[in-house]
## 1
Amino acid sequence: MEPSVFISKFKSRFLWLNLLAMAVVIVVMAIGLQFAMDFYTHHGETITVPDVRKQPCEGSIDMLEDMGFIVEVNDTGYVKNLPPGTILMQLPLPGTVVKSGRTIYLTINATDSPTLTLPDVIDNSSWREAEARLKTLGFKVGPPQYVFGEKDWVYGILVNGRNVTTGQKISVESTLIVQVGNGHRDASDSVYVTDRQVDPFEEIYEDVSIDEGGSGDSGEKDDFEVIE
């Protein structure tokens, strides 16, 4: 192709119209994409997260949703002096500036106190072992109650004055009183041992005296029946 012919193609009106149309399409697509991104990300639209801690759950969730937030209860806790259903924690924290549509995660106060399963420490461990294990699991342990038995051995556990058993569910708010042996034996459990060996037939014959002749005191011969 001669240079003059190649240059003459750039003077074609049709070529320039096509290039202009392509440029317009690219600009329109870019502007449309920008608007779409702004709409999706709520560009320029921000909201300050309110403080709903220690507030009732129901009314607070409605308020947050009306403000444009998405609310999700993702955990529960327990605070004894707060009513059930009270909001204990929120994320993001109060005062955080976020965009509309942001998810707010709430932690709600449970209706009942959580419980723990009593481990196998009764008649299976010493006082120190039981105390350490119970506290590690989260139990409240009060001063021990000493009872007759082997020193420092665990014989029972009381909750509110009642004996509990291994595997029982106990509130974390309850205090455990461990019954521990004091190293003394109850008088009612005493066992007396004598060195004298007792003939089991002694009691039967203790009132019967036999003379040298082999007869009893009465001089009468006893009659015996022999069973073959």
Note: Residues 212-228 have pLDDT under 50 and may be disordered.
## 2
Amino acid sequence: MPWDRADRDLTRHSYYAATAPREARHPPLQGETQVDVAVVGGGLAGLSAAIELAERGFSVALLEARQLGWGASGRNGGQVIAGLACEPSTIEAQLGFADARRVWDMTLEAIDLIHRRRESFGIACDWQAGFLSLAVNARKARALRAGQEHMAQVYGYTTDWIASTELPRWIASPRFHSGVHDPRSGHLHPLRYCLGLARAAAGLGVRLYEDTPVQRLVPGRVVTLQTPQGRVLADHVLLAGNVYLRGLVPELARRIMPVGTYLVATERLPQERIDALIPSRSAACTTDFVLDYFRPTPDGRVVFGGGVSYSTVTPRRMAARLRRRLVDSFPQLRDAGVAYAWGGFVDISMNRAPDFGRVPLDGAGPQGGAHNIYYLQGFSGHGLALTGLAGKLVAEAISGDATRFDVFARLRHRSFPGGAWLRTPALVLAMSYYRLRDLL
């Protein structure tokens, strides 16, 4: 089954979709329109950029191939975490410590930006502070502790170490050895937040078009974007569709891979049972390479995600598998049923670092990229906060100050090896190795 068809099937039993009704639909583009900036992709990154640009006085059209918040922005684990999906050493090695520190500080700004937008636009999205990183054995605990100390000593970011003897006060699970608590990170309802940004964008005059895939992009001083029933002429373009761009720019598609990720939500449980599992009500994530992540919800459920598909094929009996992993972590939930099971595809880069820049068109300007076509991709499953900041950085660049955007644009990215036919089997084999290493 093609991955995009599997993606449609995975949306049908989403807890987020069931608890965040869509108040408005936006008709597809018909005819021709001209704007200062065209944004392709109606997720968190695209909507964030549209808001920032509109607040700066630009006219903006946003083109979404399906519905706003359709992709990873509306289906993820809801965890708002400081930092990136890659280790700080990856950024340090490429940019040096000074710029690595700037990148880290910007990830903290990304969390603050969520709070400002929640307050400014009145977005009710169930924010809850607190995040637990959990090690499943002593060896991984040593690595977790070393990473925590590095962040405190080198980056000045302090978190709370939770020793084995103290862990039961934080999480009622026999599975975990020790952990780190980050009070600044947290979790929220991602689709409610995304739809709140859409309302804010519309209120600022952004033209929102759903069911409007971009079929062809013609670069130039004025860029043309062709859609099934119309076209947009724009002085600047932002491509924020990630794996959903459907090969619109092949040079970008080679640098990311669609990876399936899956979640379940339990039936509603008495609040005292939820509070007993994680008294701080924090989100939580293991430090395994193939990780599990989970969080409580305000309506008395546990949202649990774990396991990924690098083959783009949805695992058989996905809900049952996730429920087993949930019970492995919380045996006391053996009697709890699963009410929702869903998933989706995120984009990953080779080094798990975000890939921001200008479209690589030969001879088109600095860094081998077009002056007026920007892109944001490669959030690698760690983008709930960073997508918002990324949109702000693009708006800054289009407004004439690309200083912060170009810090990220300097990161080097390689294409996945093997081409369109071999890169997926190669990645599946590699991930099988990492799963085995986690087990051992």
Note: Residues 363-369, 428-436 have pLDDT under 50 and may be disordered.
## 3
Amino acid sequence: MIKRSSEAADHVWALLGGDPALMAAVEYAGPETALPARLPVRETARATVAVCALAAAELLAARRGGPPPRVRIDDGAVATAFASERHVRRDGLAPASFAPLSRFWRTADGWVRTHANYPHHRARLLAALGVPDPGPDADAAPLVDRVAAELAGREAARVEELVYAAGGLAVAVRTPHEWAVHPQGAAVARRPLLALERIADGPVRALGAPSGALPAEGLRVLDLTRVLAGPVATRTLALLGADVLRIDPPSLPESQELHDDTGAGKRSTVLDLARPADRAAFEELLATADVVVTGYRPGALDRHGLSPQALAERRPGLVIGQLSAWGSYGPWGDRRGFDSLVQAACGIAATEPGPDGGPGALPAQALDHGTGYLLAAALLRAVTEQRATGGTHLARFALAQTAAWLARDVPHDDGEPEAGADGHDPAPWLAEGEGPLGRLRYARSPVEFTGSPRDWARRPGRWGADAPVWL
């Protein structure tokens, strides 16, 4: 069944500076039972993928001439992709879910949400609470009970500040009103969903016609992002033909299970920018890069000369993507964050039903995935503009801004909230094949236009194992 155009997609396409007439090339189809929630998650997901696919179609048309190809958005494909990390299987084995200490906890005055999937975050959380760490191989149940007892007598806001001061990750669960009057919530509300701007002059990058329907063919992308929105964006660019090289520091190893999902189409290397040899290798890569995407907390990479302004001076004509959890402004402008924490702080967890009357969550990590597709769309649109007029372009996104858009500005298709069990069967949108590390099952990309690639050119390899060179 073909459905009408998405009002949310129209709005985002306008924010990206796209020609509104091109929205006529988008059609929507597929089941409408997926991603049920009180908030309009399905409409948000559909819109983010639509503008991404349209931006890809627009760039392809600009490079080879003629009108953009038709774009088709299938709700089933979108819903499957928005839970891609849940569908991955390597040799039939499912990835681990959230770690035992990543969850909601009752406090003396409400709830707090913690994130401790990575060892360093777990260690900092336990240190902040004064709980001895029995080690990763110990039985988790006694540790969970000990942490629960510690938090039960504390106020949520105090836990939030205590854990943050220790370098850990915890936020108090707030209602939408409590977030609206919070200084960071108020700062987010004053800003639009996204920012895409030309920040400096720069040469036009010569991009000829691609060899096929690969609008990003010939682009070199440095991927300095981590869980999950940034890797979704760069995974999409890789699908569309870009040479994407992910770079991580050796001090922050990535989960191979997560890389099995988000590493599709890319290569991955490890560089310590504080080491002269690694820094030289990075500078050589940057010298011929077309796109740089960063996803660390604001300011974290500035000491390496990777702020947007420094990049514009060192490599005029770059397209730069910058992603954060809370934005680069307000009292939380330098804080780390993840999708689950943003949902908790921004009122989403209080809005969505949870077990036993407690806070809940969206049916997918929709802030991460949605922001990832929006970021990819912005980068593709910037490449289209850069190809025509030159300049250095910057796209800025924050998960909290996507949360505000979801909760405030995205209309339901039928005007009524939807909730209930998700009857979506993902099977038609899953693929399986041999990879470097075994047989891999994964979700296909929902980005589809006439002639578009249906799969990535390479499956994920071992995280960090590739050479720091362009193909």
Note: Residues 414-421 have pLDDT under 50 and may be disordered.
